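User: Could you walk me through two proteins back to back? I'd like the raw sequence and the structure tokens for each, with a short line separating them so I can tell where one ends and the next begins.

Assistant: Of course. Protein one, sequence then structure:
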Amino acid sequence: MPDTTTFRIPKRRQHVSAARQCIRKVLADWGITDELADAVLLSANELVTNAVTHCRTSYAQVRVTLTLQETELLLEVSDPGRDRLPRPQDSGPDEERGRGLTLVEELADTWGHRQETYAKCVWARFMLTREAEEAHVPAGL
């Protein structure tokens, strides 16, 4: 059975760091450290920042879900901006923005998005290394 953690933050830039802190704690509790933790945190930072920046719904919340199951970790970031689907951009070398999804694409084993009834979800999947698998102790043991 997978371990899953879900939390919500207000759709405000100042709460992106709170999301990173929550994710960092969950990963540490699951024994996920080093490069994998860094990749998940950086990807989460990009996806949460995109949700906060591009969602046009006032007073919205961003939902973050982490699921650890056997050999993979799934990061999902949802917001009510259902009709604003993400697209990687081809940013020039002097542009300050527009590289977030390209970065997620490089860090995650795979990523994508889906429309839900009242939201969109952008997800990134990370395969666990042998060390991370061995460090994870299922809940309840």
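----
Protein two, same layout:
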Amino acid sequence: MSAQEPAIVTAEELAVAVTALVRRYERGQEQQQALADTAEARMVRAAQARKEWKAVEEGMPDLLAEARAAGWQPKQIAKILDLTESYVYRKLREHDAQQ
């Protein structure tokens, strides 16, 4: 057989090879899932989410004031941003006090 001739395999050999690949893939997926479920991995994801929220939260008073200036009511703002009305009012008061 030359280097250019394809190897001939039986259907059974192909099935065994494919089955082995699938099992190896499944084991890899299980290992990745186990690692993703560790407390450390969850803490890392929580820390990242917290950092992202802090970045958003810094600009929140300006965003809320901009929405109010555009005619939005605090109740509407709270609903669309999934915040409490009291949070919206508090941030608007803080924004007004800084102006």
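The CA atoms of residues 39 and 45 lie 10 Å apart.

Let me know if you want the two compared in more detail.
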